[in-house]
């Protein structure tokens, strides 16, 4: 990928040029706008549930209280919508990055500085969205992913290593533990960059292989040694699964990266597909193993329940003492540290009881948090809700960066779709889209239906119920389903049948940022206690509400873009990106000129 690196270096070193001119209608990729609008529908279907339910309950499946049409609506969204549309959104963000990069290459304009401003603006939008409206925001996470993509295409190894050493210290600052995710992300993006951009071949263990493959092999060997030790040494028993799965993952990466190192142009989609799928493939293996065990619950162990109660009493006493000390201005008492007697060797059963006790307390604490969450959202004032969101955010301000590990895979595939001109010249690639839809939809839906036959919900603390396997299968099926959905929409856009009417979603998609944030504003105002107070609406009614809002947004988008060049938030985003206020209103003189 030396050509890309050379282009990137040229762009980065170029002097700033005037801002990009607004993209003319005939320059827009209509299929992208339609797909973006289609993705917004699925995002709304998924998000509306979490404006009526505590987000802390995310990942538990269909609620036990759901029956009838509400159960069917939840099943439809959980197995055919959830996970499929954030992947489409991620794919589109990668495409948008590549389109902007391609335009800057063709025009000779600077790219890095405008895109950094674009990322920062996106992060600010997401942060405000998270705190002021809804904690399920995805923009804040995408800002980290977009920054990671810059590292993949632009990063130099010296600066990557230097930044890692410089930033590790931040993780030790009180309250900044979650920053470790950012540091890990930088290292992860650096490895991806090594695979995509580095052409160096080295001799390793008597074989010639790409540098990335050699590094992956070395890591795999070290992890294998540690994994073997974990199966031999009892103190390392708890690390067995992680070390075994990690060593297998790096061996697979080493083999595939060497086997499919060429052609260089294909590395984007190959890296994306591997990064996304490999963790879930390994997860399926461990899920099958876990599913073979009998169903059990931590609450069925009297010893664990008793120990959990004892630990909770101690914790409550410490918290009460800490609260009293703060109120009186006295020094906060040190927590009592109970050190295990090293001479006493605990049995596996004793260790299990302790783990189960900790799990019980985590479940109970989460239930209390969910009850508080529901009470504030359904009855609290707007000030109460914002303060609640802020407190939640401070518990892990950089946790959102963790999603970059999954989203970067879709970003890379999106870049490939543009650089290979698959989406920019969609009309010339309809056969490829047909093949993707033909294979992707049956595989993706098949995995979803199969997963739902194992489990549709999960009770915290229960193991052996197949929920882990269900989640891994669902996540594995999200990628082929996402690609199939995109392909079907593209085929509809380019058809000569009634299906081409899907183009009506184009303006809706052109205003994706405005419409996404507006959806949250409408939902918060309608469902939360500070608004109309409809929190807890049935799932089927939620979908009806979503459809009604989407229809109004589609109409509004057509009306707005008939008078203005960009959506309101798109206009703000563009102004920040290019550091220039672009014209917003469409002049009637220009309209008359176009008509003549």
UniProtKB/TrEMBL annotation:
InterPro entries: Bact_Transport_Assoc, DUF418. Pfam families: DUF418. This is DUF418 domain-containing protein. The chain crosses the membrane at residues 34-52, 72-94, 115-132, 138-154, 159-175, 209-233, 268-291, 400-420, 432-456, 476-493, 513-531, 543-561. Keywords: Membrane, Transmembrane, Transmembrane helix. Residues 418-579 form the DUF418 domain.
């Amino acid at each position: 990928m030396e050509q890309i690196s050379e282009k990137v270096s040229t762009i980065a070193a170029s002097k700033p040029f005037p801002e990009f001119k607004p993209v003319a209608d005939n320059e827009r990729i209509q299929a992208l706008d339609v797909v973006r609008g289609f993705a917004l529908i699925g995002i709304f279907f998924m998000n509306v549930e979490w404006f009526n339910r505590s987000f802390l309950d995310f990942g538990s499946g269909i609620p036990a209280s759901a029956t009838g049409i509400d159960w069917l609506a939840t099943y439809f969204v959980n197995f055919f919508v959830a996970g499929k549309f954030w992947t489409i959104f991620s794919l589109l963000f990668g495409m948008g990055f590549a389109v902007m990069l391609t335009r800057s290459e063709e025009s000779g304009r600077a790219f890095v500085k405008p895109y950094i401003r674009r990322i920062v603006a996106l992060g600010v939008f997401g942060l405000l969205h998270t705190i002021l409206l809804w904690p399920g925001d995805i923009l804040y996470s995408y800002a980290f992913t977009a920054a990671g993509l810059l590292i993949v295409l632009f990063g130099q190894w010296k600066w990557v290593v230097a930044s890692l050493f410089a930033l590790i210290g931040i993780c030790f600052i009180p309250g900044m533990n979650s920053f470790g995710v950012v540091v890990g992300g930088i290292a992860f993006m650096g490895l991806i960059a090594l695979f995509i951009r580095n052409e160096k071949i080295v001799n390793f263990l008597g074989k010639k292989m790409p540098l990335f493959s050699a590094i992956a092999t070395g890591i795999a060997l070290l992890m294998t040694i540690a994994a073997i030790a974990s199966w031999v040494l009892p103190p390392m028993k708890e690390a067995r699964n992680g070390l075994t799965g990690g060593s297998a993952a790096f061996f697979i990466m080493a083999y595939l990266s060497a086997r499919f190192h060429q052609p260089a142009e294909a590395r984007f989609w190959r890296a994306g597909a591997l990064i996304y799928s490999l963790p879930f493939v390994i997860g399926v293996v461990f899920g099958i193993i876990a599913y073979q065990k009998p169903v059990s619950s931590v609450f069925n162990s009297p010893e664990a329940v008793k120990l959990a109660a004892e630990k909770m009493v101690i914790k409550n006493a410490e918290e009460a003492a800490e609260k009293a000390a703060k109120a009186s201005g006295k020094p906060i008492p040190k927590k009592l540290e109970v050190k295990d007697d090293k001479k006493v060797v605990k049995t596996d059963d004793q260790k299990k009881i302790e783990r189960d006790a900790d799990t019980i307390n985590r479940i109970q604490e989460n239930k209390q948090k969910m009850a508080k969450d529901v009470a504030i959202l359904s009855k609290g004032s707007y000030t109460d809700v914002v303060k609640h969101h802020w407190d939640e955010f401070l518990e892990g301000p950089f946790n959102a960066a963790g999603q970059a590990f999954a989203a970067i895979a879709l970003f890379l595939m999106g870049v490939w779709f543009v650089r290979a001109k698959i989406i920019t010249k969609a009309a010339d690639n309809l056969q490829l889209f047909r093949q993707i839809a033909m294979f992707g939809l049956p595989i993706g839906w098949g995995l979803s239906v199969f997963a739902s036959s194992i489990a549709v919900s999960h009770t915290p603390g229960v193991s052996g119920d197949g929920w882990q396997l269900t989640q891994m299968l669902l996540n594995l099926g999200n990628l082929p389903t996402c690609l199939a959905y995109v392909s079907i929409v593209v085929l509809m856009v380019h058809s000569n049948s009634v299906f081409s009417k899907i183009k009506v979603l184009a303006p809706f998609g052109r205003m994706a940022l405005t419409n996404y944030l507006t959806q949250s504003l409408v939902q918060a105002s309608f469902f939360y206690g500070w608004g109309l107070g409809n929190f807890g609406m049935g799932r089927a009614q939620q979908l009806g509400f979503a459809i009604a809002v989407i229809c109004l947004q589609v109409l509004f988008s057509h009306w707005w873009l008939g008078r203005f060049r960009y959506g309101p938030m798109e206009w703000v985003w563009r102004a920040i990106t290019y550091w220039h206020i672009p014209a917003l209103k469409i002049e009637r003189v220009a309209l008359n000129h176009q008509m003549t």
